[in-house]
Amino acid sequence: MALREIFDRRYAGSYDADFLRTAVADAVRAYRGEYPGLLRCDALYHDLRHALETALTMARLLDGYATIHAPNDAAGIDGDLALFGIVLALFHDIGLLRRDAEAHLWGPALTPVHEERGIEFMEAYLSGTALAALVGECRLIMATKPAYKMPTSWSATERTLASLLATADLVSQTSDRYYLEKCRDFLFLEFSSFGLAGKLDSPFPDRKALLEKTPEFFDGVLRERLDVEFQGVRRYLRVHMAGDDPWQDSMQRNVSYLRTLLKNDELDQLRRRPKSNSGEPVQAGFLRNGVQTNA
User: What is the CATH number of domain 2-144+154-275?
Assistant: First the structure.
């Protein structure tokens, strides 16, 4: 398993390898609808693939971070805290999964409150595990909420771990080679479920409007979040890759291509048809060779 390979190299003997495997399995079960109290994931964009890719990106960020800040250094992240970060990455969108009594809802309609729901789930999930002492830190999931500002009361370590988590969330999405089509086909529908899209008076009245505003998102919100609010921790991906950053390259290709299509009024050239894999079996690359499909 790619996660295990990274953790064995960086945190051998200082993290619970069995719990890492259990957490991955539980996340897969939850998205399939096989976890007690939760219904199968019905989100198209925030699906199982996204959860797994966020976790893998988080592991690579942690690996780069540990190259610069050894786990036993003052600024280091030890094995338990790194494992905690991976578990948060796996479950950061778990609040979008409906509970047993919510079968009448569409999961994406829970988007405005899904981070808070995720914290509630994680506090219960971790309470009986080796990471029980970190239950109070589940609030770090809030950093993945759009426009959320991390409180000044958070410690430097909390800010760093939250920044790594939120960066993994954003980078894994925007570097996906199907990102533009997923925005058009999936994210637009999810936004429509809670009034952010699909209406004349909404920010994105149609799919074209969503794509037209995406370059502005890259230049403004995304850059500010990654490089300011999240302290530029995405640089640790380059450290992990020994100088290369295929995620940044892919992000740049996506937005550059979109700008060209918009300039030439050729959005119809977006011909890929992405498939959501909510509830589908775990991807082989994630478990065997660590090849990230969006890098």
Answer: 1.10.1300
